[in-house]
Specification:
3 copies of one chain form a homotrimer.
Chain A lengths: L1 E7 H8 L2 E3 L5 E5 L9 E5 L2 H9 L4 E4 L10 E4 L3 H12 L13 E3 L4 E2 L4 E2 L3 E3 L4 E2 L4 E2 L3 E3 L4 E2 L4 E4 L4 E4 L2 E4 L5 E4 L4 E2 L4 E3 L5 E4 L4 E2 L4 E2 L4 E2 L4 E2 L4 E2 L4 E2 L4 E2 L4 E2 L4 E2 L4 E2 L14 E3 L4 E2 H11 L2 H8 L2
Parallel strand pairs in A: 3-4, 4-5, 5-6, 7-10, 8-11, 9-12, 10-13, 11-14, 12-15, 13-18, 14-19, 15-20, 18-21, 19-22, 20-23, 21-24, 22-25, 23-26, 24-27, 25-28, 26-29, 27-30, 28-31, 31-32
Antiparallel strand pairs in A: 1-3, 2-6, 16-17, 32-33
Amino acid sequence: MKLPRLHTLQEIAGIVQCSYAGADDFPITGINEIHQVEQGDIVFVDHPKYYDKALQCAASVIIINKQVDCPEGKALIFSEDPFSTYNQLTKHFSPWALPLENRGHNVIVGKNCIIHPTVVMGNNVTIGDNCIIHPGVVFYNDITLGNDVIVHANCVIGSEAFYYKNRPEGREKMHTVGTVIIEEHVEIGAACTIDRGVSGPTFIGARTKIDNHVHVGHDTVIGKKCLFAAQVGIAGCVKIEDEVILWGQVGVPSDIHIGKGAVVLGQSGITKDLEGGKTYFGSPAEEARSKFRELALIRKLPKAIETLGL
Amino acid sequence: MKLPRLHTLQEIAGIVQCSYAGADDFPITGINEIHQVEQGDIVFVDHPKYYDKALQCAASVIIINKQVDCPEGKALIFSEDPFSTYNQLTKHFSPWALPLENRGHNVIVGKNCIIHPTVVMGNNVTIGDNCIIHPGVVFYNDITLGNDVIVHANCVIGSEAFYYKNRPEGREKMHTVGTVIIEEHVEIGAACTIDRGVSGPTFIGARTKIDNHVHVGHDTVIGKKCLFAAQVGIAGCVKIEDEVILWGQVGVPSDIHIGKGAVVLGQSGITKDLEGGKTYFGSPAEEARSKFRELALIRKLPKAIETLGL
Amino acid sequence: MKLPRLHTLQEIAGIVQCSYAGADDFPITGINEIHQVEQGDIVFVDHPKYYDKALQCAASVIIINKQVDCPEGKALIFSEDPFSTYNQLTKHFSPWALPLENRGHNVIVGKNCIIHPTVVMGNNVTIGDNCIIHPGVVFYNDITLGNDVIVHANCVIGSEAFYYKNRPEGREKMHTVGTVIIEEHVEIGAACTIDRGVSGPTFIGARTKIDNHVHVGHDTVIGKKCLFAAQVGIAGCVKIEDEVILWGQVGVPSDIHIGKGAVVLGQSGITKDLEGGKTYFGSPAEEARSKFRELALIRKLPKAIETLGL
């Protein structure tokens, strides 16, 4: 998320009551998760395994639970619990507020739209021209739809990230402040759920078509002209390139990358990055040709076991 | 779909501005996809592979992108893009119109029904006697329910077919003008989606019981007394006979036929037609007995590989 | 379910017009399914296979379709069709009634809750303090939420059990009279469905976190601090202990027991009870280590089949 105006390091550290390393007037423009950071952003890190990654990433300010040297051109905020400090900041700048009306603040609807009166829209929802939004659809806050988008009945667009920090007393929720961006000519089937990004966007590229009961997790980026059949489940932080086809009930875990034009057959479960231009099958998914060969060989097993006298 | 009155070939060709072969007053009574056609119907074909099938099917008028001889007793409409011409006709006779109220035109509700005020009904919705429709259910247009039907909360009945023509610039949507017909004593669990047929009905036979989160695609025909557990996904154009049981999370791709009384165990993925009266398991699904035997043999693999010194 | 006041055997037998064995004033306090019974309860049994189990269970009164000797300290009600007699009783004491307003009778909401006006609540719904209920959520009757519970948009909490008795003329519905109890700090993702118990509670323990599109069946008991990813399906009468993690699209059939801290990897299908503290994978699910070893061995199959000359 971008801050509403430029803030200084001193101001930000004051909000969370933390000490810091860097000039008082060091400029800060945003707050983001490490997957999404750019210059001017604050990021957090709380595990030694990820210290170097965080200190070297594009972010300008790192909230960290260790007294380390400040990298050139950056600033540090010291916190015993960087996750909480980060959550405190995002809550400060984007306090959660479900509007209790059917239309929140700053809802902008384009020309020639058909939006059923039962549709609920949170704050900061922008709908392009010629969109059709069917009954029972719920938009949370901070959603943008391009032109000619169709959203079918009872979809939920912009629900919160399934993202928790494990604590001894139970899981602590990451405060969701990201967005959903859906480009032009996308169609989303009935009863789908598209979660918002944690701090950046969940993104669906132009002319992608999605069938019923599909789930798309937080911060996932989907290319153009993709086709996802019913009951596909895509976790958070997935990157799917253009023209990918996922057939029914395919499952994609988090942090996976699927190359352009890949086709994944029904019920497949992906466990590693997939190269584009190929067809995959199975759970775990492999290239379909080798998977089908394997299935044919398994049919020879009775004979093999008999031959071996096992 | 049936036309509101008999039309002549000349009238229809005039609507889409196409040349034709056949008598000016050749009678036309409907428009249908090739899976659903009967005498008097218009059908379309745009691929040489399917020319013969379309010219010989039950339809009386074929929209075609080649100058072929007109079969005896039929008529032809010539179009460079039969898919678009067909869509143009269905849009002409059934322009999409989501009513912006909670009750559309021509809604007929039987005796002793309990219908929650949050239920949304499109145009041409007929509900039998003694039906219970729970909160948040959305009926699109052209839905018929028999007597004693129960539909649980947040279901979507009659959403549009997931059916696109692939074009260089992206997928073009097939205009949905079909119906959903649900017979008596059917119960549909919470958050299910039943799509309308493209031009004919999606059909659910009497006394079939469906659990939560089940998806049924366009033009699928389901028999009587079936039982589908939660999260089953059934694609379009599937034919399921009476008394079939699909356990949880089973997936059925399009154009599959499942025989009477077949039982498919949980998470199975069907890839070919299934004979009735048998039990199936696996993804791809096979007869359960042979699949279980195969699984038992796989457990002997370590010994086999060791024996072979591999 | 508990009866609104203590009833006598004579009163109860009078309601269902059945003969009985036991003192006229034998005290009855509840009606429950065999999974849930305690002293004072009525239970039913209609199959010789389960006669002994029912006669020896904790229930005090057994509705049975055979003239057997009455066990010491218990009572019997004789019926040719115990399922119908049982349903007749539950309907008598808890006649189904979907309130036709957005708030039913006896709705109690705690302090500092944010409940969207589109939320529908049946009768006897109790919401704790600091709860957030997003748009489009439907609560059926008899639901209790602890403090600090979040329910995301378009969830259905308390739908009816998918439980039928097979009859020659079709399946007869078990009348649902149970409850849902959700403890404090539970979060439930968008478009989830949690069915009520048949006569007792469906239970979700404190601090359990559930992602989108998850289904939980009737009478299932889920422990504390569990984590269920998107599209997990859990059938009825399942017992899941504390701190269990089920990754995306996992399926759990009815009557399964999963031990504390078990982890089940994505798309796994459980077929037997799972010991706690271990990681499982596959459909059917096995311990992940042995399943991965098996998958590695299968990759050696081509070589093995070649070696054997098959």
